[in-house]
Structure formats: structure tokens, C-alpha cells
Amino acid sequence: MPRIEHDLLGELAIPDGVLYGIQTERARLNFKASGRPVHPALIAALAQVKLACARTNAECGFLPRDTADAIVSACETILRGGYQDQFVTDALQGGAGTSTNMNVNEVVARLASQQLGRSVDPFDHVNLHQSTNDTYPTALRVAAITLLRQLEPVVVRLQEAFQAKEREFADVVKLGRTQLRDALPVTLGREFGAYANALTRDRWRIFQCIERLRVVNLGGTAVGTGMNAPRKYIFGVVEKLRDVTGLNLARAENLMDATQNQDALVEVSGILRAHAVNLVKIARDLRLMSSGPEGGFGEIELPAIQPGSTLMPGKVNPVIPEMVIQAAYRVMAHDHEVSLVVMSGELELNAFLPLAADALLDSLDLLRRTDADFAELCVSGIVARVDRCRRTMERSHEILAALIPKIGHGKVVEVARLMRERDLTIREAAREAGGLSDAELDEWLSTERLCELGWK
Fold first, then answer.
1. What is the residue-wise DSSP string for 314-357?
2. What is the CATH number for 191?
3. Would you state the pLDDT for residue 445?
4. Is residue 438 part of a domain?
């Protein structure tokens, strides 16, 4: 049988067997827009916040020790993955996250009540000396830091996959291209090394993001003044949260600023956007270099992981780079959402944080999974088509620039004209119009000379 609970607005029947109460049930009925629940990392972070608050309140003498212990035990159960089906509020909700905060409060309170055999109140005990306006932003930062720590090693794996290919392809000479036209020669290894360097910058920026998020407003209660919270709780609760999470968190010096202004989220989201931009550039390049294979560039072969056409039996498409590009576009869209949310805060509070939380945490998840698949299913299995690279390069006029120091610009123009008029290779035309021997051509068109940093 459903149980009946009461609040300011009246009474409501709560489904039989659920741990949450009337506040969560109202939210479940009211908010259905996204059709998906709040990110589990945010729920876990809120459980950590509640755990730290209970311990602080108990040490300060504001909460009976057995009540605090029961709250801590309930939070630890949630952190081990228990009762995830009880967190039912929609990701997009009005109220600045109040519904999610109350969902956690109610579940923790009922679990603690069951343990003690008496009532533990979601407001007077679990939410003691707290407000959604300080617990929710704090939990969002804890969740984001947790996911950033999971993303960083995956970016490293992707970076290392490109570095391995940089070494493998070090001697594969190919045409460089500017504006999609033939340009001076490069090595395939240097191209992959450039991708690895871009990812190195991403890795460093992602690491630095943690510093941007470590300052929290826990203890500020509703508007950053700390009203209704005792001073010794305010000065102790972040230290307890630091112990619970293992994160180097710090209480904001200006709690009103930290409650009002969420610009750090924009900064972090922008870093994720920068990583997404690099992923798009790299993935598009790999699609181009693998295009064809005979009618396009055809310089590399991507791993064949699935058939590419329902009509053309032999077709294999660059599906992983295409997936990477789409995921990166989603991260860029999320970045715009975060910016809109943060600029929309008004006076003492930002009411739209649930959208920023959903966008930012989803971006972190997307990038972690995308980078892992990119490294494992694509980059590590790339093969160079060495003969194709060399053949294409030797039929391009642009490589003639390598001969200018030897025979001069005028002679090189003659060689280029001969190549064009008689469809000759560089070597054929250079021997005839430039008077170069095979030994000289071997020297001046060698991999080392073509790709060294300047000439000696």
C-alpha cells in the first residue's frame, strides 16, 4: 500500500517500497523533460557531502552520535553503489538542484531510520546546517574533479598511442598539404607527433582544471552568509569533506561570491571544448589520409572493424573517427549550455545549475569513453601505406623545392615544366632537365634531407 506524506502543499501518496519521500515524489511527477536521471557521480558526491556534514555536526555536538553514525552508514552504502534506483529526479529540474538534494536527504534519512529503528529526519538531521545552495554546487565540483581524474589517464593513453605511431612512421616520407593542395614533404611520423603534442597540451590543461574546481562554498548555506549554521561547523565542514573525498578542497574566502558566480565551470568546460576541437581536427585528418583507398589520399589504413555499406560489399568506412567527431560536437554544444547557465545567474544564486551539471558531467563521460575507443579501436591499429606515400610524393611538383639549393630556382622551373608536359616523375625530369645524377638525386631527395630541420 502507498504511504501518505505531508508537506507545505498538502499530502501525497508515495509508491510502496521506495526509500524517498514526498519532496522527491513531487519532483518525479513534475520534471520529466530529459527523460534521464541525475548523473550518478553527482549523487555520489552529494552522499560524500552529507557524510562530511554529519561527521562535522556530530563532532561539534549538534547531532547525536548514533544518528550521525547511521547517516554516515547510509551514505557509505550509497557510495558503494547501493540503492541507485532510488535516485529518480530528472537531470533537468527547476529549483537550483533542490529536488536532487532532497532525493539524497530522503533516501539517506530512511536508510538511517531503518538502521536505528526510529525516525531520522531529512531536514533536521541529514540536511542540518546546509542548503541546496551550498551542498549542490559543492557536490558538482567534487563530481567534476572525480571525473576529470578519470579522464586524464585516458587522454594520456591516446597521447601515447600517437607517440607510438610517431616512432613507427618516423621514416615514412609523404606529401605535406596546405589548403588541401600538395606542399613540401613531411614524414607521417611527424604528423602523428604533432597530434601527440596537441594531446599533451590537452592533458596539462585537464590536470590544471582540478585547481579551478577545488574551492567550494560549503558552509555558506542559502546565500553565502552562513545563516543558520554555527561558526565552528562552517570552519570545519570542508576539512571533513577533504578527508572523505581525498581531494584537496578549500573553503572559498568569499562564500557569497562562490554561491553567486559559477565562472569556474565555464573555464573547465572551455578546456574540455579545446580538447574536443583537437579531437575533431585529428579525426578529420585521419579520415582524409585514409580516404580512397585508391580514389583518395590512401596514405594510411585504419583498422577495419565493421563493414561499411549495405550495397557495396567491399566498403569499409572510417567509423571510429566519425564517432569521435560526433562526440566532440556534443561536448562543444554542452560548452555552450554551460556558458548560458552561468551567465543566467541572478543576484545571490544561479537557479539553472542542473543543466550545467548535466552538460559538464556528460562531457567528461563522453570524452573519457571517446578517447579510450579512439586509442584502442583506431590509432593503435593504423598502418602506413609506405609505397603509396612515396609514389604520390615523387609525382608532385612541390617536392622540387628540395632541389633549389642544388640547381637553382630557374632550373627547378624547367624540371617542373617537363614533369607537367611529359608526365614524368621527379627523378626522370631532374635527370633530363636538371642534369642531376641518380646519386645526387638519392642524396637530395633522401628522407633525412627532405625532413631535417633546415639544411646544412
1. T----HHHHHHHHHHHHHHHHHHHHHHHHHT-BTTB-TTHHHHH
2. 1.20.200.10
3. 74
4. yes
Q: What domain range includes position 61?
A: 3-128
Q: Do 401 and 444 have their domain in common?
A: yes
Decide which of 80, 101, 128 is a domain's last residue.
Answer: 128
- Rounded distance between C-alpha atoms, residue 408 and residue 405, angstroms: 6
Domain total in the chain: 3
C-alpha to C-alpha distances, 133 to 95, 140, 258, 443, nearest whole angstrom? 10, 11, 10, 70
Annotated catalytic residues are 309
* Long-range own/partner contacts, residues 180-185 (CB < 8 A, 24 or more apart): 182/396, 182/397, 182/398, 183/398, 184/398, 184/399, 184/401, 184/402, 185/393, 185/398, 185/399, 185/402, 185/450, 185/451
**Mean pLDDT for the stretch of residues 297-322:** 87
Q: What is the pLDDT at residue 456?
A: 60
Each residue's pLDDT tens digit, 225-283: 999 999 999 999 999 999 999 999 999 999 999 999 999 999 999 999 999 999 999 99
179 and 90 housed in the same domain: no
Residues 308, 416, single domain; the answer is no
Of 384, 277, 375, 287, residue with least CA distance to 327:
277
The CATH number covering residue 412 comes to 1.10.40.30
412 and 317 in a common domain? no
Backbone angles phi, psi at 142, to 5 degrees: -60, -45
Encode pLDDT of 360-406 as tens digits. 999 999 999 999 999 999 999 999 999 998 888 877 777 777 788 87
Task: Say whether both 328 and 432 belong to one domain.
Answer: no
Neighbours of 453 (CB within 10 A): 4
CA distance 170 to 386: 11
Q: pTM for the whole thing? A: 0.91
Examine the domain organization and report whether 27 and 79 are in the same domain. Answer: yes
pLDDT tens sequence across 102-147: 999 999 999 999 999 999 999 999 999 999 999 999 999 999 999 9
